[in-house]
Amino acid sequence: MPDARRIVLPPSRGEIVPHYEEERTEAHALRLGMWAFIASELLMFSGMFLSFVYYRWAYPVTFASASRVMDIGHTSIAIALLVTGSLLLAFAELSSLRDRRKPTAVAIGITALLGLCVVAVELWGWFGHLERGLGPGRYFTSDELQGPGASLFFSLFYIFGGLHLLHVLIGAILLAWVASVAARGTWRRPRFIALQMMALYWNFTVIVGLVAYPLFYLS
Amino acid sequence: MEQQSKRERRQVFGLGAYVVAYVVVLVLLAIAYATSRSDLGDVRFTIGLVIALIQVLVVALMFMHLVLAKGSIPYFAAAVVVFIALLFSIPLVDLETRFPPTRPFENVHGPSPTLYPADSPD
């Protein structure tokens, strides 16, 4: 039977949600919920990876040629920025545990900016590809590659890349919000859990980027 | 409150461990980049996948704190790996055991004939 005196609403102001008896139960439920969300997202991306693997099996020569004409530089920089964000969020978690508000907010804010930089760098790379005629489907007009598998490779590239960038953008927006809350000092007890949730999400986008890298650039 | 704070501290590593993990992932990224510039043929894809696997493990175990996770979360993560393995293994076994005439042209004979060649008169 929960102690009614401990339940102080509203939960958004830092108190335990009424149906949890103690804080660690709530924290574990939140983490498990985030892992369930990440699991569903990973399975969705796995389906897309599988479609890539299937078409690579069907068009091995064309896909190998297509990966060699890709500009790998932009994505390499983008992944380095994503991993830097992971380090910054780990630093923010440590700062948050020591109740150091300003370094926590700054680290989260920089990570949000890095997320926007990742989107910008990747889009820059996309425009470079499009200028060379390496577009998706019927927008594929390049003479560098021939064969029916070539346009398919780039269709997969833009669909997959677009979905990944959307996730990074959502992460950056949410991190900017968390940074503003941290800077104002309006969060109290759930500060660490909220940050852990965001760090888990950010690292999920890093994992997706790391797996996509060899598929599209080293095939 | 103090007990909660101690519990939360057990859920993270020291900053040095994160820096080491960060350097490892970046060094592996540099190796993958160098591989893309080399002329290793099909081997570079295998190297790239192995590097990606190590990087994913480092990120999941260190930055996502899977090493320190308790309760049902490690089992949950393991279940995800099993489901992804199933998702990939069943179609791949199908593809690799297909009767050759049912395989796509390029898979059996090499480059596909060009449908719209660049030097086509029209």
Shape call of chain B = flat
Total E-strand runs of chain B: 0
Label the structural class of chain A. mainly alpha
Runs of chain B in which pLDDT lies below 50 for 5 or more consecutive residues are none
Shape of chain A: elongated
Low-confidence blocks of residues of chain A: 1-11
CATH architecture of chain A: Up-down Bundle
Order of helices and strands of chain B: HHHHH
| Total domain units of chain A | 1
The major beta sheet of chain B can be summarized as: none
- Count up the helices of chain B: 5
Assembly level: heterodimer
Helix content of chain B: 55-70%
Strand content of chain A: under 5%
Structural features, described:
The complex is a heterodimer of chains A (219) and B (122). Chain A contains six helices and no strands. With 219 residues, chain A is mainly alpha-helical. Chain A has a single domain, classed as Up-down Bundle (Four Helix Bundle (Hemerythrin (Met), subunit A)), CATH 1.20.120.80. The relative contact order of chain A is 0.17. With 122 residues, chain B is mainly α. Helix content of chain B is 66%, strand content 0%. Chain B has five helices and no strands. In chain B, helix 2 runs antiparallel to helix 3. The model of chain B has no long low-confidence stretch (mean pLDDT 83). At the A-B interface, helix 1, helix 2, helix 3 and helix 6 of A face helix 1, helix 2, helix 3 and helix 4 of B.
